[in-house]
Design brief:
By secondary structure, this protein is mainly alpha-helical. It contains 10 helices and no strands.
Length: 224
Amino acid sequence: MLEFFIAALVIGIAPGPDNLFVLAQSATYGARLGICIILGLCTGIAIHTCLLVAGVSALIAASPTAFFVIQCLGAAYLLYLAYKSFGVRVGVVQMSGDSRSEPGMTNADSKDPVKSSDAGGGVPSARSLYLRGVIMNLTNPKVILFVLSLIPPAVRLERPIHPSLQMAIFGAEFIVATMIVFGSIALLAGSVKKYLLTSPKANRNLNWFSGCVFVFLAIALFAL
């Protein structure tokens, strides 16, 4: 099972849409909120693992109609996030220990960005970004195919562990590997944030970058 964990780490490090998504969001909102997105993505992996054990994932993958519907839902949600990123109000993002804040934000909001909301173009709440990660993962049919191609082949019937429990363990290892790799990306991107988001121009550029990432991910859902 150690071999599976190492393979999951390598897969996580390999460049891909998820890495780009975590990078863009962490650079825009900081490492703290980036971790919230990662927790959402990991929750999605946990749900996909449960569906795999129950046999639901195989049924979805075998149904072209169900697969296409999930693709459309995922693409629509990503385009919605792109629309919000392109339309966000430009302002100076509040830095730790800085008295500046975005226009329209109260002092209480500017002191704690985690409590801010999407309303008025402010920083999304931790809950909002967590749910964003969950929905992103659950509406991505490629994750279903990825889990199906990665976990079942690693199951060994000769092991004294039930195959269903083995798949659950592999899913947990995959989540840990994802947290390690994506968490590192979030911390690195978050450390750069304070140097980038000190002007409306930099704020606008990062919001547009995030929007372009969402559009790219929406298109990538159909690029099988």
